[in-house]
Amino acid sequence: QPTECFLSRPGEKQESTVKAKRRKKKKISDILEKSAPKPGVPADLQNLLSQHFGENRSVIEIEELKLSDSCFLPANDLTHSFSSYLKEICPKWAKLRKNHKEKKSVVMLVICSSALRSLELIKSMTAFKGDCKVLKLFARHIKIKEQMNMLEKGVFHIGVGTPGRVKALVEQDGLCLSSTKYMILDWNWRDQKLRRMMDIPEV
């Protein structure tokens, strides 16, 4: 009787094959979990700009990207609520708000990592903003044309949104930054994956 030829018979385990141990990839959340939250400092932003633009810019162009210390206000030392922090860095808000009459612009621009975080920040600045107009500048459920129309027709004092949508509005001439006096980066907040806004590659 001819027998079937098996390279390895069913059920047999070849001794020579040892399962290669899969190396566990380090996730960014594992690394970030170990680092304690600390207030952002101007050097953090400067380093980020240098890293991002360093490869394709000349030394002179990189020098031009450097912002002097006078451009920065104190960071939130993590003891303030969002409203009390804004009151501290912007004591003349009532006057600035009153004098702002330009359309297609905002006096204060708050940039954060997601639409949900934007809504959180808008709620938490109630004590600071008073009766001034706040515009949501994120993509979730809001078309860019709607935001451009609103900016064109009305006067808004504060814009809160995500980097991608803010960038798109500026590029499409929907948002003009000439009247913007303050830009707040939501630097320390972390999402469910423990990423800060600046840890997200797309940003």
Automatic annotation (TrEMBL):
Pfam families: CMS1. SUPFAM superfamilies: P-loop containing nucleoside triphosphate hydrolases. InterPro entries: Cms1, P-loop_NTPase. Residues 1-39 are annotated as: Disordered. GO terms for cellular component: 90S preribosome; nucleus. Gene3D superfamilies: P-loop containing nucleotide triphosphate hydrolases. This is Protein CMSS1.
